[in-house]
Write a structure and sequence with these properties.
Elements lengths: L7 E5 L6 H14 L7 E5 L5 H10 L13 E5 L16 H6 L4 E4 L2 H5 L5 H13 L3 E6 L3 H5 L3 H13 L12 E4 L13 H18 L2 H6 L1 E5 L4 H8 L6 E4 L6 H9 L5
Parallel strand pairs: 1-2, 1-8, 2-3, 3-4, 4-5, 5-6, 6-7, 7-8
The protein binds 2-phosphoglycolic acid (PGA).
Length: 268
């Protein structure tokens, strides 16, 4: 029987929202998520709004719990530095994120890779630091358009996975991790991978995890799709067997749109 994976609907706010706006958005979403929703909802505000978002989450009633008893609303950060403390001006560490109430952290988002210059080795170091610091990393991978056109998308993603997952290869107890497939050409462009293309890549990623780590980790790991996810395409993407949730940028900034996407996690 296929493993049941709780859908994860994550909002990556990027460099948006002042604290008052953050509180308003979190409350507006949590007040209206139906009690019957089965999705885990994740907010990834900028660092400056983490504590405010946390407070708004704590104040939001009623509280929904997941099947395993965990709160269904979670907080995450968009990046971290691979070190616990020290002389790294401007950086934020895993212990600081834990202290701010984060359970998750995005690692290797396309904008970090392609706008801010992070290579696979930097991303891998952040991935390892997140795990060492007790966070669940959401490792983002994805090809650029010329790579897809050249038919290299599967190998580009395999290479990105290899760099980060090598840190886990000799573990006896596997920590929780999540993955996000975000084709670079689909981010913020209004162009989305077709559900069939997303499924092909997600199945490829799951096989890759099984080969590099083990079958039970591969069966458990949640693989999110990201890139122009909207209320009108979220359901058909998440209906695919290996698409276990979505990582949403632009459409996570407005309560109505984000709620529409959360609703898409429920089968019709
Ligand atoms: P988008 O961004 O939904 O605005 O395309 C997705 C992301 O960057 O995570």
């Amino acid at each position: 029987m296929a493993q049941k994976r709780i859908p994860l609907v994550a909002g990556n706010w990027k460099m948006n929202k002042l604290r008052a706006e953050a509180a308003e958005l979190v409350s507006a979403v949590l007040r209206r998520v139906p009690a019957t929703s089965t999705a885990e909802v994740l907010f990834c505000p900028p660092f400056t709004a983490l504590s405010t978002a946390r407070e708004a989450m704590c104040n939001a009633l009623p509280k929904r719990l997941l099947d395993d008893g965990r709160p269904a609303a979670q907080l995450g950060a968009q990046d971290l530095y691979p070190g616990d403390s020290g002389a790294f001006t401007g950086e934020i560490s895993a212990p600081m994120l834990r202290d701010s109430g984060c359970r998750y952290v995005l690692v290797g988002h396309s904008e970090r890779r392609h706008v801010l210059g992070e290579d696979n080795e930097t991303v891998a170091a952040k991935f390892a630091a997140a795990i060492a610091g007790g966070l669940v990393p959401i490792l983002c991978v994805g090809e650029r358009e010329p790579e897809r056109l050249a038919g290299e998308h599967l190998s580009v993603v395999a290479h990105q996975l290899a760099a980060a997952l090598k840190h886990l290869a000799d573990r006896t107890v596997m920590p929780e991790i999540a993955l996000a497939y975000e084709p670079v050409w689909a981010i913020g462009t209004g162009r989305t991978a077709t559900p069939a293309d997303a499924q092909e890549m997600h199945a490829h990623i799951r096989r890759d995890v099984a080969e590099r780590l083990d079958g039970s980790t591969a069966a458990k790991v949640r693989i999110l799709y990201g890139g122009s996810v909207k209320p009108d395409n979220a359901r058909e993407l998440m209906a695919r067997p290996d698409v276990d949730g979505v990582l949403v940028g632009g459409a996570s900034l407005a309560a109505d749109a984000f709620l529409g996407i959360i609703a898409g996690a429920e089968p019709e």
